[in-house]
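for ur thesis appendix - Ribosome-recycling factor. copy paste whatever u need, i formatted it the way the template wanted (i think)
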Amino acid sequence: MSIAEVKQNAEVKMGKSVEALKGELHKIRTGRAHPGILDQVSVDYYGSMVPISQVANVSLLDARTISVQPWEKGLGAKIEKAIRESDLGLNPASQGDLIRVPMPPLNEERRRDLTKVVRNAGEDAKIAVRNLRREANEQAKKLTKDKLISEDDERRSLDDVQKLTDRTIAEIERVVAGKEAEILAV
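the 3d part is after this line
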């Protein structure tokens, strides 16, 4: 393994940490509706639990309402029950085959709680990035110990990995700040 491979590996893994954070924050409910909110809700489909998006068409009716159109007639009640029993605090209503899921407005206390959740997710992502930095630095030190690279190359590698870490943490802070602003917007 070379220094370039160590840096490349760290960069790819740090990028995945940022993407995982974005995916996690996407699930957090704001005042606006988006179909991704229901991604974590599973429904019993012939004995196995599957995400709603695999048994129904999930789309937006307007800015505050999600529509769920089951692909099979008998699934409407099961989907409605799964949404109601999820920890999202949503109350779906059936209209024939169509299930409407209105998004309740967030109160101030709930907004503050959600910003705490967002900050915790951001901190977890930063911890993951710092752990990746430590792993990359340990690999560089091992290469130096094995006399595969010089100490100067090791020092340059440590500096490059630190710069990459700083950029990634700045990106994480930008994503967290954007989500907080979205949550606090009334």
